[in-house]
Amino acid sequence: MNLATGVDLIEIERIRDTIARSGESFLQRIYTAAELELCRGDKKIYGTRTSADERGEKREKSACIRVHPRPEESTPTENRSIYFSLASLAARFAAKEAVAKALGCGISQVSWQEIEILRDDANAPVLHLHGAAQALADKIGLTTWSLSLSHTETHAIAFVAAIGEV
Fold it and tell me: What is the CATH number of the domain that holds 54?
């Protein structure tokens, strides 16, 4: 029997900062369309969080981030800016890293979108592998995967375990 595990922890703020710098191009490079649909947020639902800045002064931060497409990616009549749940994006990013670790390759031999984290009917995370990621799992005999995601106000974590016959 073959057993592989992977774990990854990420600061949610890193995802916020990267999206603020790169916008929709980061989201399109890392996440599948189905993942982005699952991570759509509603600022009214997720609200804001109060935290202390580096000087200890309280400030509010949204749990969602609004993304505007680049001008060349939309027509002037489109209003495609949407909110995404930062915790959901961060947890999926961590899951992709954890899966790559379990595959024994890091993210270098597989693409971000070949590791897809969706939900089942009970809203539990479900892993779907595609392309090189699926081929590598097949090659090393990993057939059954279990995935757990969690987050706090500041961090997201993912843990994966995979088993199979060699």
Answer: 3.90.470.20
Nearest to 49 by CA among 39, 58, 60, 40: 60
Which sign, positive or negative, has the C-alpha torsion 104, 107, 109, 110?
positive
In single-letter form, the type of residue at position 12 comes to: I
| DSSP H helices in the chain | 12-22, 24-30, 33-38, 43-46, 86-102, 131-140
pTM given for the model: 0.81
- pLDDT (tens digit per residue) in 13-66: 999 999 999 988 999 999 999 999 999 865 443 444 445 556 666 545 556 777
Q: CA nearest 85: which of 54, 47, 122?
A: 47
The pLDDT tens digits of the residues spanning 82-122 come to 678 899 999 999 999 999 999 999 888 999 999 999 999 99
Q: 3-class DSSP state for residue 153?
A: coil
Domain containing residue 29: 2-164
Q: What is the count of structural domains for the chain?
A: 1
